[in-house]
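Q: Given only this backbone (115 positions), what sequence would you predict?
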C-alpha cells in the first residue's frame, strides 16, 4: 500500500534552515506529482509546494524564494529545502500524493521556528 514517511523537522531559530524529506513506497513514485502541505495550530492545512512528474514546481506566495521542492525518483524521495525561516513557518508539514482516486498523507513532521 502507499506509504509516505516524513522526516527532518525540528526546532530552528529565525533565519535558519531545515531540509524535510518524504520517503514514498507502494506505488510508482516517478509517475505522480508530489506536494508538501503544512498546518499551523488553529489554521487550515495549506499547500506549500508542488512538483510535477517532469520536475516543474509551484509555491505558495508566502514561501516563494525561500523554499525549494525537489525529487529524487531513484530514491523515491521528495524534499523541501526551507531557508530564511520565520515564526510564521511553524507548523506540521505533510507530504501528499494523489494516487488513483485517493489522497495519501504522511504522518507529518513538526517544524518550530523560535528563538
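A: Predicted residues:
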Amino acid at each position: 500500500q502507499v506509504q509516505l514517511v516524513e522526516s527532518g523537522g525540528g526546532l530552528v531559530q529565525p533565519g535558519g534552515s531545515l531540509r524535510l524529506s518524504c520517503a514514498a513506497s507502494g506505488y510508482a513514485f516517478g509517475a505522480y506529482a508530489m506536494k508538501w502541505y503544512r498546518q499551523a495550530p488553529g489554521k487550515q492545512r495549506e499547500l506549500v509546494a508542488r512538483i510535477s512528474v517532469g520536475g516543474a514546481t509551484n509555491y505558495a506566495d508566502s514561501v516563494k524564494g525561500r523554499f525549494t521542492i525537489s525529487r529524487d525518483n531513484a530514491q523515491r524521495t521528495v524534499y523541501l529545502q526551507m531557508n530564511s525561516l520565520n515564526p510564521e513557518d511553524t507548523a506540521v508539514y505533510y507530504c501528499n500524493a494523489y494516487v488513483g482516486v485517493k489522497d495519501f498523507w504522511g504522518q507529518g513532521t513538526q517544524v518550530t521556528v523560535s528563538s
